[in-house]
Amino acid sequence: MNGGPSGFNNAPVTKAFVVASAVLTLLFGIRGMSKNLGLSYQDIFRWPRLWKLIASVFAFSSTPELMFGLYLLYYFRVFERQIGSNKYSAFILFSVIVSLLFEILALALLRDPTATLASGPYGLIFASFVPFYFDIPVSTRIRIYGAHFTDKTFIYLAGLQLFLSSWKRSILPGICGILAGSLYRLNLFGIRKAKVTHLYFSTIFGQ
């Protein structure tokens, strides 16, 4: 199993998202703001900060999270190649918005002023594990020291590492992403037929 041809051929939306995530993570890191990107109860309900809503969707707060996150985003370009850039753009928008709403709801229910969530595209990444589980078949089975693995195992392990990277701070956004992916899978409001048209990623990114 692999993500198809190497590079971002036929995956301009994925390329744009990966580049945006990497650049914003580096920029915030250089400015020493990486640890302050995660959403908190105060950021939403006491002192609303729109910039944090946007930053928390793209920028990771640490280098290990960035590495695993970009690897998974890069692998999941397979879905853009399967359903096309327009439908994949709709999947991204749905996953990001719905998972963000779930995160805000969770913060409202917790009402803990000290609770802070991990930043980064957790919503999109973990929403992508839903079609990965259901739609990507196993192509290789291997055995290592008596233990059985498949080629999908290593993607799950990378996801688990990211899921547990910041413990409670990353587990909650991961769960919100899985919920968003499940709602997309259930075709809520016919979302799986939605398309985002007139996106000129091919021109902008040279694809």
UniProtKB/TrEMBL annotation:
The chain crosses the membrane at residues 12-30, 50-76, 88-110, 116-134. Residues 49-187 form the Peptidase S54 rhomboid domain. SUPFAM superfamilies: Rhomboid-like (SSF144091). Its main location: membrane. GO terms for molecular function: serine-type endopeptidase activity. It is found in: Membrane. InterPro entries: Peptidase_S54_rhomboid_dom (IPR022764), Rhomboid-like_sf (IPR035952). GO terms for cellular component: membrane. It is a multi-pass membrane protein. Keywords: Membrane, Transmembrane, Transmembrane helix. Belongs to the peptidase S54 family. This is Peptidase S54 rhomboid domain-containing protein.
